Structure prediction request, 122 residues.
Amino acid sequence: MSRHLITLLWRTLALLSLALGLLGVFLPGLPTVPFLLVAAWAGSHGWEALEQWLLQHPRWGPDIRRWRERGAVPRRAKWAASLMMALSAAIMLVLAIPLWAKVSAPLLMATVAVWLWRRPEH
Prediction:
């Protein structure tokens, strides 16, 4: 693959992730910061100006830097993610979906919640 094509792919991933992250600002249940983490990571491979903009952003920069430096997740974000996963699991229980989905998705969410709460906070 040519270097130009690889850079274009990194930039496409960065833009898509940035768009999803910004959409998460307005749509409850769609996370913002995880998509911005991916956008910054992809930007570091093919769009350093975007990466620097995200790292220096007054609202999201500290969260991105905290994750990069220590893998830390603020307690508020842990609570928000856990509550959204619990709400999602409760909604799945009343929906007419296959039993395997009603069981496996909440188990996956519980696994993610355990991992998330084991992350440092500061």
Summary: Residues 75-117 form one domain.
